[in-house]
Amino acid sequence: MNKVKAVLVFLLLMLPVITGISVFAKKGGEIVRTDLKYLLPDAGSDAGSAGYFTDRLSGEMLFTFSADERTEPENDRSSAAESVSGQSAEGSDGASAGKTGELEDAVRSFADKLKTFKFIKVRDFSNMEKTGSFLFAHRYALGADVYLTSGKPDPEKLRDEVLGILYSPFGGATAAELGRDPFFTMRHYLMKQSSSGFGMDASGFTFVKNGDGKKVYVISASMATVGLSSDAGTEFYEYCRNLRNQLKNRNIEMMYTGAFFFTEEASGSSKSDITKISVGSSLMLIVIMLGFFRSVKPLLYGLAVISVSMLSAFGAVITIFGGMHVISLAMGATLAGISFDYVLHVLVRRARSGYESPEILRKAVLKPLGLSLVTSVTAYGVTSFTGLNILKELSLFASVVLVGTFLLSYYVLSLTRLCRCAGGRLSVFLPEAIFRRLSAVSSPVSLAVVAAVFLSSMLLVLQKGADDDVASLRRNDTELAVMDREVNRIVNGNSSGVWFIMENTEAGEYDALEACEHFIGTLSSREITDVEAPCLHVPSAGSQKKSIETYVSLYPELKNIYAEQGIELNDDETGIGAAESFSAADMPGMFDFMMGNNAVLIRINSENTVLLEKIRSFTGVYPLDRRGEWSRAFGLYRQELSRMLVIALILITAGGMFIIGPDIIRAATVPLVTGICAGITADILMTGSMNLFTAVALFVVTGLGADYCVFIYGMGRHSRSGAGAEAGASSREAGEITDTEANSDSTPVTLFLSWISTEVSCGLLMFSGMPAIVTMGAVIFWGLLFIPVTALMLRKHSPYFVYNYVRNQDKTCLK
Fold first, then answer.
1. How far apart are CA 175 and CA 181, in angstroms?
2. Residue (of 196, 192, 216) closest to 206 by Cα position
3. Exposed end of the chain (fewer CB within 10 Å): N or C?
4. pTM of the full predicted structure?
5. How far is C-alpha 223 from the geometric centre of its chain's CA atoms?
6. Burial per residue of 775-812, b for 16 or more beta-carbon CB atoms within 10 angstroms, e otherwise
7. Which residues, 6 or more positions from 153, have their beta carbon under 8 angstroms from its beta carbon?
8. Tell me: the pLDDT tens digits for 23-62?
């Protein structure tokens, strides 16, 4: 019957593995998610303009290229093109390189390479004929002649402008320009674009001039993330990284930014974390198992149980959620060390009890391990109430791993046959030394430690407080973060901005672009430099209509001006009669992502507070503050978890009062509060503040810490029945634990080994590149360090127990 139960448990855990395999067969590598947006809370509907622009911004990318004066070697101008394309620039390419500089070649080759990635749309004007044809065909709708199209048309200004160009000693006009563009609209349009800070070279590539006058080329592109495979995304990310390093060796500075790059960076960091945690946990488990049991058999048993449980948990997550985020995997990897507690309890009991029947063994471990399972699953399960996808995944993953490991240990490992062994003197030396030292600490010293930890955490909380900004999900000192700030400074004139959505006014007087133009019209020229808006580059339908009407109304006067100079205009050649407007979506440029169906996106310099107040007071404008919405959601979740944590402590204390009486204060409440305070202190000292992940980690600390408190309180007590009860009656009256009781209890060694496994697994999280994971690691590591220490210092009669326990260790060892 025991074997039948073991087989049923194994088959039960294999069901998620089978369903997970079917999901993997359909999705392949897509089951492992890397999207940073998936980490964020659902702060509201993504429908409407907010959702549209959020998606558009998430796919935007900017690339900049600049160089110093040393990048113009006469005989090696094609080297940069070779670095970008991976091909030799010979023939026509070589000739082109001879005409232009190495920097221009790098830009051209990179733009061509970008077009080979099917999921990327490049915004460039290298096809000058196509771009020029569109602009010229709609020249009368562009409204570039501000002196004509802004306000009431002024014939006198028209005369002065035309004559000034015709008789300019520095330029003049060609016969073709006079015949086809007598208003000089294209000339004025190019001058207007140049005044905005952007220029265009002969090849059609956009550039800006930085503070010291150095030319910086800008390439804008958008990415279609829907259907993008992780392999394709990683390939492009690695290409950009490698190219940046190659060009740096040639004194060309390439920088890039975009949500895609931050997502890939987080993905790479999480994958590295998974490797470090997995390798570290595996080595730790091997050392523990071989060090104590001195045999490969228990090690194989343990690794098999953990492997099956982890695979089952992964299968369950991808079956229910359709995939699993790499950060969830990184945090879930620590479950190997945490769930290994159940394996250790059963194997150590089996090794020390010789050929004890499975029924007796299971009866002995059911209560402590069952209670441990309930508290641990509850601790992880509570995190799912935050609404964060990664914590929902982690909650399910942890629950399956813990339950699976418990069932396999309880029903399968209990059937194993291990020779009677206490592990040898060396394997109990550390527990003996540590337990004896801590148990010997006087009450005043113990209370002083508790008070010091509590007060330090309270002072830090009052001083630093909580930081719910979602920016805590990523570091601000990475190379990518530095590039992001610098690219924004170059392109937008400032390193940070605030996005606003401008929609149609309630009265319906303007469409979105026209409302944008109306807002720009209220600003000074200085304020406009702190604004980026599509209406600065694309005229609205109303402005196009007005512009065409203005040119048509002034055309007779223009013909008279030219006639006075002996020049006759051809109506058909000027195209004034065929002037037509165009759709804003067809306008070539870098700002199409800032235009929606009935709204536009406007970026304001975050440092210009006056301008921010002005746009907030404008009708039909509201901020696209997804970061703020998500941060507020983080804050609400953190506060809710904090309240639930307090309730959990109260329930633990109340339940303990009912079961064991006032001793629960010393045995569990005080150690748990001390561990929580220690975790908070460590987090603030390492990261600078608390956040949502601090509260999540504190729940884990409370759940696992309660287990340690239960085991420490129960050391020697659960065996005070049966054969040892009568022998230890007199000793118990004296407050001591008998030799028989001490020798039959495997809790100290098991507790020590399981504590080491948990600390190593969680401690590895502190070496992550993700601040959120570092927070989880710091809180759990230091919290679980102080809980058993405090519980041992406050435990009654621990010195007697440890002394008798060590004195009665068997000297046999596992062969």
1. 10
2. 216
3. N
4. 0.72
5. 19
6. bbbbbbbbbbbbbbbbbbbbbeebbbbbbbbbeebeee
7. 550, 553, 554
8. 888 877 778 877 666 666 654 445 577 777 877 888 889 9
